[in-house]
């Protein structure tokens, strides 16, 4: 197997950290982008908000993977925090795309993070990568996020957008908050429970990212979601079965709106997203169903 040099932005996060560990375990050289001074050849200094990248550190990279960005669910969406969410994604992506384009020998591929928030609330309607963007803050953010990679595309670098769903993991993301509640017997459906949640096991998320890195010819958006999205009520029941706990405490929609503010629309909204292009490219999910994804996280 060819040993590759791969740069990862966001390697301290849930997905980026798991990807970096997977690549290193297979003998690849992982270069982490860091916001402080680089300590060795395995780090590259960058400042997303100031759109600075130590371009020399990217020399010789086969691929650049950008998974950096402030946490969507880390706090309420004040105007200030929405600017943080935008700048951490859009400015960072633009900086990396321009750095990649400026290299004398650019990497073969830029895999840039995105999210299924691109599609907005789809209700019961299943959507794939051919669907247009939806409405609302997250949709507009995802559109701008992807457009920020234009410099790399114009330089002829194969550019892929990984539109990730809800990652099932105990280590981070929305599910890291759900597991303790359900283990304590305090879990329940959110709102009426009829909203679709398009999930993906962390194992499959990492495998899909590596598939996008390794497979020549893949460009544009790919939905990184399991092929069988289910409703919040179905997920609630599955969590109860896997964890052997009752799920008696539904959370009313009004309470979610009070607690989460504008972000409650993302929790109560429905996104039935299918990974059409990923499946067509030959990718196979290890955990296509929700109970398997929950079991894998445990």
Question: How are the SSEs ordered, and which strands pair?
Answer:
Layout: E1 5-9, H1 14-25, E2 29-34, E3 43-47, E4 52-53, E5 63-66, H2 79-102, E6 109-115, E7 126-127, H3 137-147, H4 150-154, E8 158-164, E9 166-168, H5 173-183, E10 196-197, E11 199-201, H6 202-214, E12 220-224, E13 230-231, H7 232-243, H8 253-260, H9 264-268, E14 272-273, H10 276-280, H11 290-297
Care to describe what's here?
By secondary structure, this protein is of the alpha/beta class. The chain has a single domain (5-297), classed as 3-Layer(aba) Sandwich (Rossmann fold), CATH 3.40.50.720. The chain is 38% helix and 18% strand. The chain has helices at 14-25, 79-102, 137-147, 150-154, 173-183, 202-214, 232-243, 253-260, 264-268, 276-280, 290-297; strands at 5-9, 29-34, 43-47, 52-53, 63-66, 109-115, 126-127, 158-164, 166-168, 196-197, 199-201, 220-224, 230-231, 272-273. It has an 8-stranded mixed beta sheet with strand order 4-3-2-1-5-6-8-12, with helices on both faces. A two-stranded parallel sheet has the order 7-14. Helix 2 runs parallel beside helix 3 (137-147) and helix 7 packs across helix 11 (290-297). The longest helix has 24 residues, at 79-102. It is globular. 45% of the residues are buried. The mean pLDDT is 91.
